[in-house]
Amino acid sequence: MTPSLSTGSAPTDAIVHPSPTTASVPLSAHSRFVQRLRRRYAGELALLPAGEPLRPQMQQAYTQLRARGDSAADALRIVRQLVMERLVTLDCDRQAPLAVVTTAVTQLAEFALDVACAESAAELDARHGAPLGPDGRRAQFWVVGMGKLGARELNVSSDIDLIYLYDQDGDTAGDADGRGRISNHEYFALAVKRIYALVGDTTEHGFVFRVDLALRPNGNSGPPVVSLDALEEYLQVQGREWERFAWMKSRVVAPASVVADGSAQALRGVVLPFVFRRYLDYSVFDSLRTLHRQIREQAARRSAGRPERANDVKLSRGGIREIEFTVQLLQVVRGGQFPELRTRPTLDALQRLARAGLMPQDTADALAVAYEFLRRVEHRIQYLDDQQTHVLPVNDEDVRWIAQSMGLPDCCAFLAELDTHREFVAQEFDKLLGGEKQCTGCNGKAKAEPPADLHDLIAQLPAAFAARVERWRESPRILALRDETRARLRQLVRRTGQWIDGVAEDASEEVKAQRTEAALRWADWIEPLLRRESYLALLVERPAVQERLLRLFGSARWPARYLMQHPGVIDELASDEMLGGRFVAAEFERELESRLVSLRRTGEDDEERLLNLLRHAHHAEVFRTLARDVEGRITVEQVADDLSAMADTVLRITARWCWQHVRNTHREAPQFAVIGYGKLGGKELGYGSDLDIVFVYEDEDERAGEVYAAYIRRLINWLTTKTREGDLFEIDTALRPNGNSGLLITTFAAYEKYQLGRGSNTAWTWEHQAMTRARFVLGDPALGERFEGIRNAVICAPRDHEALRAEIFAMRNKVRAAHPVKARRFDVKHSPGGMVDAEFAVQFLVLSQACGHRELVPNLGNIALLQRAEAAGLLPEGVGQRAAAAYRELRRVQHRARLNEEPTQVPLPALAAEREAMLALWHAVFG
């Protein structure tokens, strides 16, 4: 026996065509490839240390081979053969996990390329000197691994897809005598040739890896090596959609030195913007369909007349490639906005997609199981003869061996499980790339719709919608669109017309009119977005999204306006679970923090990117709430609760991230607090509400005043600046001590002194009214407790009730005068009997009675406080309850009017019962 038999190898005299059913013979011995290796390299098998063949073990074997006199090329090839023999043994005899095999083959490629880079550099430096940039530094050479090499997923007979880059143009230094100078491009082109000779040439020991350079810029017609600047220009000007998928898994794999020192990270700045767009990019669906169709057609041509070639576990229907395409498509579409999806390995990506809610967890798990099964079958097919094939063998003994090495009893069980996995994969892939199939030409490209097609379609549309579309026929904006874009628009117009006509025959005229109005609003919304083709592509690819969008437009006017400002959020409608959920602060915060970590990892966490990240996330959550609202899934109070919780969470995250961008900070976290007033304080925020905020701090550091002033200015800027994603909130700080003439942020001691009336500079009564709705929003918990003490002291302070009543009465009249109401109209907020009456009545009750009725102190909102006031005997029986119910109804009416962009003034005698309940409250409190 050879010494390497401890790793599971079979005796060399017992490996002549054994049957896979022979119990005494290891399963690995059935591999004809392994049989050849054990005969040819019996004396070398022991050079590879026992266990998994990782890079240190490869280095040890390589060093010993070089020491005995083998050339670098021969030593690399022998190491490759030893690694393959070991992997077949571990995989087939010991059922090693898939990751053991893919990791080992990937590390073999990285090791071989690193050795080849070092060898070529030494030879070329001796002849031509080092390649130098304009600054005199050595120009860097990068070997970029694509596909499975980049993702660390190489199979045992993979070729390696490579792209060779260098970072700087220039010339070499020349040899010791100054001769032999060549350009850096010529130097690295020679390096590529030498690397291929060391790794890819076939010798008496075979090859290390087949090398494929077809993915380089301009493919096989392009130069073998390009500069980083040339690559960037190529991707920006000529980069095609399919290349985005190829570059998504790219990674610098050699030389090891540039990976270790981080200099290879410069490639990210070129590749990431090309692969991941900053918007949801559904335009890639058609590109992937075309690519997938070409691959299937190529596979069909290969198997024409050769039916045994049709059973391809990689390229056939339901194969490995369809799992990879499913994952990569979702990553490319979403990865620009959700950096946490950017990962190369397929199995890791599946779980990230599930965590992001883009795929059910059960589906991700089932695809992962299928992927591992298919990859293990692929390896066994290749173990048989070391051939780069993915087709099941036709020999029954080989198929039986594959089944048994997979842990299955026989061929039938194996083929049944294989079919189950492939059918599931195919269904998921077809589901993802479903939608309406376009007619295709002979070249595989979608036939463009002729420009006149809209004219042909108009006659089929309902009259009002047809009149709106008619305006597009001669519109320069429409005529300037690409044929492909016009074809998509036509498809959407036709689908919209069918939706209008799809109403039930017995539906009311109101329902029919609502659908027509929805279609008109859709047309108004889509027209300014026609040059942004990703939105058209999204709706074409997701018919359910378009239908939900139309329903949303039909429900109210304001959603259409919101979507004009933030069109990117429409993809939220793709989620079936969206309408049934509610805002969850912890999940929202966790997702954003995860996204920040991903951005930091790729060096994209600049201030502008963070501002856009916050805005997009907030707008998406607001839109989810809006969709639930107009669908009637949540009440007005729940809308306010969710929008308020959303504001709290966004403020908390923004405050934390912003502190990291303030210069000269003196502590890890700021010792400050945000106090919310008004609708934020009362948790009654509506869509587009501004935030009434006061900032305070307590910090004894001598730099504190300057640092916190700079911090709050920056924080307000983060919240209010309009970027390409819009803004977050309008901020109103007028309630701070001394109003707009006061400091943006004050010490907590100064705030306390002002509110409690200590000294000459004290709060006014209207500021104490505001305090009834104030609450601690975020910051140092100790300051939060102290704020509650101040609020309690302000609310419970002894007061002259009559003087207080007169001041609040006068303030109510002042507010009413500022909001005149037309004759015979009732303004649900400002008219006598409107919501403001209830708010002023509650403030008076709290400030005058809370000292004796502590149940009025908590900031519970007007409805709950009215009910508590009646229960405490401060209001006549029924007055508080009726006023609370009226306030709730008036809020609902106001909310619906604003959603539909209608006036909140209604003709009398509408809402008479609510008005009477409010007036009864007012008279009970103020007489």
Tell me what the structure shows.
With 927 residues, this protein is of the alpha/beta class. 55% of the residues lie in helices and 6% in strands. It has 37 helices and 14 strands. Strand 9, helix 29 (704-720) and strand 10 form a beta-alpha-beta unit. Helix 7 runs parallel beside helix 10 and helix 22 (533-541) crosses helix 23 (543-555). The longest helix is centred in the N-terminal third of the chain and has 31 residues, at 98-128. It is elongated. Residues 1-18 and 435-452 have low confidence and may be disordered.
Short description:
The protein is 55% helix and 6% strand. It is built from 37 helices and 14 strands. Helix 29 (704-720) links the parallel strand 9 and strand 10 (731-732).
Major beta sheet summary: 5 strands, mixed
Number of strands: 14
Could you say which overall geometry the principal axes of the C-alpha atoms support? elongated
**Roughly how much helix do the residues carry, as a percent range?**
55-70%
Radius of gyration (Å): 35 Å
| Arithmetic mean of pLDDT | 88
